[in-house]
Design brief:
The complex is a heterodimer of chains A (145) and B (83).
Chain A (H helix, E strand, L loop, with lengths): L1 E5 L5 H6 L9 E8 L7 E8 L3 H16 L4 E7 L1 E3 L4 E9 L2 H18 L2 E7 L2 E4 L4 H5 L5
Parallel strand pairs in A: 1-4
Antiparallel strand pairs in A: 2-6, 3-5, 3-7, 4-6, 7-8
Chain B lengths: L1 E6 L1 H7 L3 E5 L5 H11 L1 H6 L7 E4 L2 E3 L10 E5 L6
Parallel strand pairs in B: 1-5
Antiparallel strand pairs in B: 1-2, 3-4, 3-5
Classes of the chains: A alpha+beta (145), B alpha+beta (83).
Chain lengths: 145, 83
């Protein structure tokens, strides 16, 4: 299991190249989140985080996923700082014997990272800056697990 | 007792500082919030709607009625928006 909270970008090919090499792995799934600019006015997104709690919260979520779906490996990278449209914000990767477990665990990780890992996004646009509000749908998404 | 109090995102902006050491005898998070609100208007503004806030005690999410006994670090922040 690898968890990293970092300001630096990550090389997706390099990260995935070394992931899920255990011989009992039959499937790996990865997800990458990017900075989206819906209005064409976004200058950058500022991601604030709670050092220490971030790592602890992500570790707890990843351990839960690893246990529930018998993962053979699991990886979470989440960035913080000022990120531009198109930049990679975060990624998760899961490895399991079969694809159903790998997909489900990746979705579980994403749902929990959204509303249980202490990060906050602020959008800085040409017209001003505003904190991204949490959505009820994100909280509801946890109920399916 | 001395407690480190941390603020994140718009809570930090409204209060105007990221962290401070607070001398308090508050028994619960709610009592600490009431003490802070009584200090100055910027605290009152930041804590005006507790439903829009979350609290972590020693880096674990807790409820506002949780006891502060033995707690060293309290953090207040809006609902998280990771991922």
């Amino acid at each position: 299991m690898k968890i990293s909270v970092q300001s630096d970008d990550f090389d997706l090919a390099q990260v995935l190249g070394g992931f899920g090499k255990a011989p009992n792995t039959g499937a790996t799934v990865s997800f990458t989140g990017l900075v989206r600019d819906d209005t064409g006015t976004l200058e950058y997104m500022e991601i604030e985080h709670y050092p220490g709690m971030c790592e602890a919260a992500i570790k707890k979520i990843a351990e839960e996923a690893a246990t529930r779906w018998s993962l053979t490996d699991c990886l979470v990278i989440h960035r913080y700082g000022a990120l531009k449209p198109g930049d990679q914000i975060m990624m998760v990767a899961t490895a399991a014997r079969h694809r159903a477990e790998a997909f489900a665990a990746a979705e579980f990780l994403m749902d929990y990272l959204k509303s249980r890992a202490p990060f906050w996004k602020k959008e800085v646009t040409r017209d001003g800056a505003d904190w991204v509000a949490a959505k009820d749908a994100d909280e509801d998404a946890l109920n399916r697990w | 007792m001395k407690i480190e109090v941390l603020y994140f995102a718009w809570v930090r902006e409204r209060i105007g500082l990221p962290r401070e050491t607070v001398e308090t005898e508050a028994a619960t998070v709610q009592a600490l919030v009431d003490e802070l609100k009584a200090r100055e208007e910027r605290y009152d503004l930041a804590f005006s709607d507790l439903k829009s806030l979350r609290v972590a005690l020693d880096q674990e999410l807790m409820d506002f009625d949780a006891p502060l006994d033995g707690v060293r670090e309290v953090a207040f922040f809006p609902p998280m928006t990771g991922g």
